[in-house]
Amino acid sequence: MSEFRVACLQTCTGTTPEDNLAALTPLIKEAAQEGAEFILTPETCNFMPQNKVARCATMQSENDDKTVASFAALAAELKITLLAGSFILAGDSDKAVNRSICFNPFGDVVARYDKIHLFDVELDNGERHSESAHYKAGQEAVIAELPFGKLGMTVCYDVRFPALYRSLAMHGADFISVPAAFTKMTGEAHWHVLLRARAIETGCFIFAPAQSGTHENGRKTYGHSIIVSPWGRVLADAGLETQIIYADINTDQVQMARRQIPALKHSRHFDPPV
Questions:
Q1: Which of the chain's ends, N or C, has fewer CB atoms near its CB within 10 Å?
Q2: Which fold has domain 3-264?
Q3: What b/e string do you get for 193-220 counting C-beta neighbours within 10 Å, with b at 16 or more?
Q4: Would you please indicate which residues are annotated as catalytic (active-site) residues?
């Protein structure tokens, strides 16, 4: 058994990394003061670009990005495990990467995950997204070894692909992070049910820090950062405001849920339909 306090930050990220870091830092420190040992931020927490030109002009490599360095320093200063939901970073091609990074209480990077599933869609309200035009998709699922258990790392649109979550659970994940910047329209329709389903299917805790509000670049995100138990119960929901949510986690609940619903043990291979 392991017990710890987790905190998910809900923010409204702007276009300037320095301003976003200035907004995130006191929230991270407040969460640590409230006893959180594991603190998570939303997707694209270093900046949300206005357009491709602005993104290319702003993004840095992981080694050069000041927010990455500042997060490492904060984790070491506060003696916390800190998950940057994701940073927009320069990749090894002309495209960016959407990278989640986990820092240990010494400030070391213990795991990196590049978002695998990219969101390409034209919504009924006219809103369009084409992540694959600007970002390079990740190729590998990642589990981070934390002091309190194993963390499966995902980002936002990944939540619609249950095979990824099942694989993480089958390989030992106790918790799964789902930092996000869900659109308002799709969030209202699907956010809660998807996250509760992923928790129930895997028997994992789900930690989902989210962006919320109308951003500088005009994008509207849904908010409702949530923490979900392995039984599918919502332990905390941030609503729409910029704030921090907390939950006290007991990892015994993972095995308890999996004993009661042993679906991970009952998976069977079958031939495709003909």
A1: C
A2: Nitrilase/N-carbamoyl-D-aminoacid amidohydrolase (3.60.110)
A3: ebbbbbbbbbbbbbbbbbbbbebeeebb
A4: 43, 115, 156
